[in-house]
User: What shape does this take?
Amino acid sequence: MSRPPRSNRGHRERNGDHRQYRDSHDDRRSSPDRSSSTPPYYPREADSPPKHVRDVPRVEHRDSKCTHICSRRGIVLICAVLTNALVLICVVAAQMVSTGLSSASALGGFNINSNFNLQGTELQKARELDMQYSQMRAPGIYGGLSFSLTFGVISLLFVVAGNKPPHLMSRKLLVGALLFQAVGAVAYVVAVGLYLHFIISVNSTDVCQQRERLYARSGYTWMNCDVGGADAAVALFGLITAILYTAGTVLTIQTIRRVKRYLQERKRREAERQRHRTQPQRAPQRADTSSV
Assistant: This one.
């Protein structure tokens, strides 16, 4: 009477052993697939980058070049290009204004004998003094033109080079922009001081004094040896350009720091992703050793 239960118990035990063997065999057979796909205790999204990391390239492809050029750093550089152009224009205007009426009339602007009261020896003397005064001011105009043109062109090149996101730009380019703007800020302050010192020294010469008295006798008191409005405009726009370069230096430093933090964070995430990929391969090995 006890045999059927034994046989049933043995049959159930055999069925249970077979089921246990089949389950363990299925687990072993499915473990390589599991190791190749996802870790046991990590979600599937762990192997893929986070959403904000995946969305970055999409946003970059959608953005136009103006999006990166018109950043705060780019806008400061664009304004520096414009102020460099204004400095160049004011240097030319200052030279044209200071050449005198006789030199301006030689260009066909107006008739000498009918527009101002200089005739004979006074007219000849005015022409000589204007020529000497223009030659004395020549280093100022040539230096101002070359200086403002050089900084304006280099600033424009950095504006065009900034058509990419900062983290995709070369680090040497960012460091170069930083050094250029820092040097430009100091150079413009020095250049404005030298320009005003040069103009004041030229205006204090005997040639300028004689020229002033000659024009004053004819009623042209505005042709004096004071610093003119165009020269003051050169100094004003030069100082504005120096301020813009200083602001650009600060913004470039901040950009370099943000790029450095971004690259460190990206490297850390890549290391975590690599560690998550290696963990699923180790997990099945531990399960096999424990089952044995």
